[in-house]
Amino acid sequence: MPQLQQKKKALRPRQKQAQQPGLEHRMDPQPESRVLQTVHQPKLAGQVVVISGGDSGIGRAVALAFAEQGAKTAILYLNERKDAEETVRLVKEAGSDAFSLSGDIGRESFCQRAIAKVIRQWGRLDIVINNAAEQHPQDSLEEITAVQLERTFRTNIFSYFFLTKAALPHLKSGSSIINTTSVTAYRGSASLIDYSSTKGAIVSFTRALAHSVIKRGIRVNAVAPGPVWTPLIPASFPKEKVETFGSDVPLGRAGQPNEIAPCYVFLASAEASYITGQVLHPNGGEIING
């Protein structure tokens, strides 16, 4: 038996114009033309954000960019205490508030504890930035041990599930979740097979979660950076590769964290109110068709 077609909900009065391209002054209701935010208003005033891997690199740049837009920030990190303390200092210097919390983001119990502290501290949560990641280059699949595979997946994708799951009961309509994926999700990487796989999973997680929470008024998006100069690079590659890191993209260089952070500000702000389930690609000009 054919499925009955569901009647579409009327969103505006029926109307028709007889000429192209049409006249705006005759439309009912009028299209909304004014940008919701202006350069003179903080885009995230009074909001609270939690950032995994917020101690350095892209996470630190996002924390500072959010602070400049009026957001308070919880910085989650593993063991990079000095970097985390510096990020908190910089956020406070920018005129906002912050605290840092050390723990393994790949463990659900830590994610639950982190969100509980955010709520105790500020009584609300508006934005979740899933950003923590690790990578361990190997020349072949055979060299990726079960221990490495699980560790990479725990940090890079399990943590996204755990932190978001803990945060969701506190998020309200207008809240935003932003996930850090990577250009490797789209083109792969011969020496980072497990890392690339987790980044592909993040893209699917973003799209599926966006549909899951859309009726709650929560938007879910992602950012897929190309090569970016962060501590992950000298911690991952031999010094010869570090020396030329990023030189193979069309712009001829690696990006800086502060060139990536504006993507997160945009996606978290009211300016991106019609964007969910999408990925932004600050990657130096590489075309990935994703």
From TrEMBL:
Gene3D superfamilies: NAD(P)-binding Rossmann-like Domain (3.40.50.720). CDD domains: SDR_c1. PROSITE patterns: ADH_SHORT (PS00061). Residues 1-33 are annotated as: Disordered. Keywords: Oxidoreductase. SUPFAM superfamilies: NAD(P)-binding Rossmann-fold domains. InterPro entries: NAD(P)-bd_dom_sf, Sc_DH/Rdtase_CS, SDR_fam. Residues 1-15 have a biased composition (Basic residues). One of its GO terms (molecular function) is oxidoreductase activity, acting on CH-OH group of donors. Belongs to the short-chain dehydrogenases/reductases (SDR) family. PANTHER family: NADPH-DEPENDENT ALDEHYDE REDUCTASE 1, CHLOROPLASTIC, NADPH-DEPENDENT ALDEHYDE REDUCTASE-LIKE PROTEIN, CHLOROPLASTIC-RELATED. This is NAD(P)-dependent dehydrogenase (Short-subunit alcohol dehydrogenase family).
